[in-house]
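Need a sequence for this fold. Nothing fancy.
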């Protein structure tokens, strides 16, 4: 039996950094690990409790990954911030099969990835526009010890 949340978080970060528009304009890190003084746009990755981890042989399980997308602009037009958030959300979802294939090949688990929601980050104020995109990973396999 092994836990999968950390390898999935690491795979998600690598996937986000492989998208050229994200790599050029956003810092991607786990939540709370942004470089000190970083004032640019960012995507912070967080996770929820892993399901199935208490099973003797966890051949199925799941975890929700939260992507906190913060776009910085000095502009005053709210819709421009919303359009950028929408663009980044769709970039992430457009080629998510690459993340699926990477996890299958490297982590040896068949994973289903669903986008279960997106919501604004209420504590974010201009010059930042923020939202949270939630991805749920459900898998079969992954019971080998590392």
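Here you go.
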């Amino acid at each position: 039996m092994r836990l999968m949340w950390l390898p999935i978080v690491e795979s998600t970060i690598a996937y986000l950094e492989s998208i050229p528009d994200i790599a050029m304009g956003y810092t991607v890190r786990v939540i709370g690990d942004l470089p000190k003084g970083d004032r640019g746009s960012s995507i912070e990755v967080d996770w929820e409790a892993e399901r199935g981890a208490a099973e003797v042989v966890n051949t199925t399980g799941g975890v929700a990954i939260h992507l906190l997308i913060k776009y910085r602009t000095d502009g005053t037009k709210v819709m421009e911030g919303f359009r950028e958030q929408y663009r980044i959300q769709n970039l992430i979802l457009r080629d998510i099969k690459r993340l699926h294939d990477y996890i299958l090949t490297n982590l040896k688990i068949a994973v289903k990835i669903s986008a279960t929601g997106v919501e604004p980050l209420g504590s974010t104020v201009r010059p930042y526009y923020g939202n949270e995109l939630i991805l749920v990973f459900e898998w079969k396999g992954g019971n080998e010890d590392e």
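For context: Residues 108 and 142 are 6 Å apart (CA to CA).
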